[in-house]
Amino acid sequence: MNFLFTGKPLPLFFYKDHLQIIAKSTSSTAKIRSPATFMAPEDAVVVVNGLNFEQRHGKERVRVARVWRTKGGRHFIVEWSVGISLLSDCVAAYVSDDNSDIVATDTMKNTVYAKAKECSDQTSVEDFAIFLAKHFTLYYNQVTTTIVKIAEKSWERVSVNGQPHNHGFKLGSEKHTTEVIFKKSGVLQVSSGIEELSLLKTTQSGFERFHRDKYTALPETRERILATEVSALWRYSFDSLYDIPKNQGYFTETYLDVKKVLVDTFFGPPKEGVYSPSVQYTLYEMAKNVLSRFQVISSVKLKMPNLHFLPVNISTKDNQSIVKFEDDVYLPTDEPHGSIEASLSRFSSKL
Ligand SMILES: O=c1[nH]c(=O)c2[nH]c(=O)[nH]c2[nH]1
């Protein structure tokens, strides 16, 4: 019998009686997942009226800046764009006009500002995401899982006359990201990442001995520009609030250390650099070095588009060499670009 979709709101207990949780994270399908693609929690699927139903709601791009001031006049600032997604028991709102279990997305937005205000000490983007996720999951009965994603802009302190400025900042290019998932059961996942980290080297890169067939035109080379915009995402092995390091600077320092390992591996030593036989090889070295250096990281995913700098050769019938390429003049292009990505995780990783 079709009880639902009658047009009349039904009491909430009715829906709850007809909801059946069909997938838990222990199900066999739940185990088929690619490492370091941070999956939606699987415990949100219910059967409504004979159909699988999954829902979540939240607020995206809540922008907030927080300033901390020391007595000595030094200021610190962070600028965050926050996304919140709640997995909550509010099916009634989808199948009737009963909104009583909905945490309004406007409330979520206000909570971001209220919680930023509560951070009286300088707070890392990861700690703020954990703070928010904990709040939503524990404050609301109907919320089973909270997913918080935040991107932090890189406001860097400027130096004037060689001296760090007390309250002057300039914007760097890359973003520091985090994703925190916190479930009612207490299970926690913390990931961090970097977006838009543009790296380029003018030599020590080549691409040879690749597969050739009748469609292949690309010449082999041992001398080219290697340019990319790195996106990195790594997952920490902490799986409950008790595991999270208590020291305030932990996540920010680890982020800076991971970024340094990625960048140093890409470039190699300052004088001679390191030869890259392909983007794939360099990406793998970068991921491997992150896992070997940071035991607390269980998996890492890297995306490194190959942003081509094409050799410029211009000639006409009359003038064989208006511009002759001698590893000097290039046409930079990002369309089309190669797309290269890979994940590396420990055997023990829970991903
Ligand atoms: O480092 C590279 N990897 C590729 O897969 C590829 N493909 C291509 O055309 N140039 C390159 N370079």
* CATH homologous superfamily title of the domain at 197-237 and 253-351: Urate Oxidase
According to CATH, what is the class of the domain at 197-237 and 253-351? Answer: Alpha Beta
State the strand order across the main sheet: 3-4-5-8-9-10-11-14
Mean pLDDT over the residues: 89
Q: What ligands are attached or bound here?
A: uric acid
Determine the CATH topology of the domain at 197-237 and 253-351: Urate Oxidase
Sequence stretches where pLDDT stays below 50 over 5 or more residues:
1-41
Q: Which second-level CATH architecture of the domain at 197-237 and 253-351 applies?
A: Roll
Residues in helices, as a percent range: 10-25%
- Terminal-residue CA separation: 41 Å
How many DSSP helices? 6
- The structure class reads alpha+beta
Would you kindly provide a written description of the structure presented here, covering whatever features stand out?
This protein is α+β, with helices and mostly antiparallel strands and 351 residues long. Helices cover 21% and strands 31% of the residues. The protein has helices spanning 12-18, 91-95, 105-118, 125-139, 250-267, 279-293; strands at residues 46-48, 51-53, 57-69, 75-88, 143-152, 155-160, 163-171, 175-183, 188-201, 226-236, 297-303, 309-311, 330-332, 341-345. The strands form 4 sheets. It has an 8-stranded antiparallel sheet with strand order 3-4-5-8-9-10-11-14. It has a two-stranded antiparallel sheet with strand order 1-2. 26% of the residues are buried. It binds uric acid (URC).
